[in-house]
Amino acid sequence: MNRPRGPMPAGPVHRGRRALVQSLLRSLAALPVAALPLAAAVPRLLRAADAGDPCAALPPLESVLAVAEFEALAKAVLPPAHFGYMATGVDDDRTVAWNHDAFSLLEIRASRFVDVSRFDMGVTLFGTRWPTPLYLSAVSSQRAFHPEAELAAARAAASRQALMMLSGFSSTAPEDVAAARGAPVWQQVYPTDDFDVTRAVIERAERAGAPAIAITVDNRSGRYNETLQRAMRADTRTCTQCHVGNSHDGVRKAPLYAGIDVSRVTESTQPSNLRPAFLDRVRAVVKGRLVVKGIVTGEDAATCVRHGADAVVVSNHGGRDEESLRSTIECLPEVAKACGGRIPVLLDGGIRRGTDVFKALALGASAVGIGRPQVWGLATYGQAGVEAVLDIYARELRSIMRQAGTPDVASITRSHVVTREQAARFLPG
Fold first, then answer.
1. All residues at 6 or more sequence positions from 99 whose CB lies less than 8 Å from its CB, including other chains
2. What are phi and psi of 384, to 5 degrees?
3. Sign, Cα dihedral of 177, 150, 315, 91
4. What is the pLDDT of residue 385?
5. Mean pLDDT lowest among 80-84, 106-110, 129-133, 374-378
6. Is 243 a catalytic residue?
7. What local confidence, expressed as pLDDT, does residue 9 receive?
8. Closest by CA position to 171, among listed 143, 192, 211, 199
9. Long-range contacts made by residues 43-49, C-beta under 8 angstroms, separation at least 24?
10. Domains of the chain, CATH where assigned
11. DSSP characters for 71-139?
12. Between these two residues, 233 and 66, which has the higher pLDDT value?
């Protein structure tokens, strides 16, 4: 199933034949050799670009075999600023890259004499059973990537029975997303420096049926996103075609904040004076489950447990807000140890293969979130693209679980992975 025909996000997508050629060449050069057959799509994309709609000539969805291939295709069809917004990190983007590359430091120990004839990839979170440990992470402003925005992602989550975490800066109201999902979705919320606003958005999300509120604590102001800045300079469109009143401030444009007085907000994603007492204030407001997103140290994880969190998400915002050079998979063990099995530990950042999911589960994750890849699929093939991304992860996870002799998620333990340093000890000197 190919991406539904129709206009791309507000504003022209066509950037000119030369710009598209350059983008395609850079994108294809970054792909592994095994993905080079996608180069056959270049002539069709160029002809479609001349006609004003490069998406019309995307290769058949079934020819896209790996999650990474969606990134190159998304870059080819999106406006530069929109792709840059999704791709950017901080400074040199090294934390973005390391989030994924760090998985290569871990090796998986295969096991041969285990019965895997009965197989179950399901996990249970807060009493709800999910068929896989994969969930759709909160990604904001999805109308920048597809006209159906979060509704397409929600329908994909519904068709694959996947958990969805909705961004507080989504392009679509939470009530509409929940309706498209056909079930409640978790709501991610940015704590502003006006607690009345924070309280109001939590209450609205819970009225919309959100069983869990995920408070993000890794988005202090002051970041410098060089990749995004370069992409914006390369984008010749008028910004007001996408941003009404040229506003990029989520609290002043996101539907979740509609009807809420945000006039006193000066820090829209996180107050500079955030302290543990803030968790107590949020805990007093949240009626359902409280999830704290953005935890990367054992000390902060222990603080969350003491102050009433029901779960934490190991996350560095995909490397968008800090150039720490610490990947989330490296942070996971100390966070899991600090939580000590008292609350679930989720993880996002850098997941590109089913083997990455397996490694995160082995190091203590209860579930694994998919951020940028869901948007790559959305930008190129809409709902079907998001479904395909989830299917690829599930297929790859199933394969490695069988090879590792783990017939269910509960049987995946720390003993199933070793670091390359550990393995090197056994090499002859």
1. 316, 318, 319, 327, 328, 329, 349, 350
2. -60, -35
3. negative
4. 97
5. 80-84
6. no
7. 41
8. 143
9. 45/20, 45/76, 45/77, 46/17, 46/20, 46/21, 49/14, 49/15, 49/16, 49/17, 49/20
10. 114-221+238-424 (3.20.20.70)
11. HHHHHHHS-HHHHHHHH--STT-HHHHHHHHGGGGEEE---SS---SS-B--EEETTEEESSSEEE---
12. 66
Task: Collapse the DSSP code of 280 into the 3-class scheme (helix H, G, I; strand E, B; otherwise coil) and give the result.
Answer: helix
The sign of the CA dihedral 241, 247, 250, 253 is negative
- In this predicted model, which residue has the larger pLDDT, 358 or 225? 358
- 177-187 average pLDDT score: 96
Do the beta carbons of residue 178 and residue 208 sit within 8 Å? Answer: yes
Query: Which of 82, 100, 146, 317 does the annotation list as catalytic?
Result: 317
Give, as one character, the DSSP assignment of residue 4: P
Q: At 305, which amino acid appears?
A: V
Going by C-alpha positions, the residue among 286, 310, 360 that lies closest to residue 330 is 360
Residue pointed to by tokens 């002539």? 43
Judged against a pLDDT cut of 70, whether residue 86 lies above it is answered with: yes
> What's the whole-number mean pLDDT along residues 29-40?
54
* Of the listed ranges 232-236, 242-246, 248-252, 405-409, the one predicted with least confidence: 242-246
